[in-house]
Design goal:
With 73 residues, the chain is an all-alpha fold. It contains three helices and no strands. The protein has a domain of 27 residues.
Amino acid sequence: MERGRLAAIEVEQLRAGMGGLSFSTEPISPSPLASLSYQIASITALILLVPSILFMLFVERFLRADVLSRIGR
């Protein structure tokens, strides 16, 4: 009897990942607000993208080596 119980415990430990905790997850039901939060996140990303593109264009246009070499003259 004791040997059978130990074998069952070993099988459970193997299933749980070598002695780790075993747990189950609940499925997440999609809420109507989830799509709204994705829209807000994408709009925010686009708004934050504009200054970085403008800065990139500024650096490309004005901070070249030949332009910076004229400043020291």
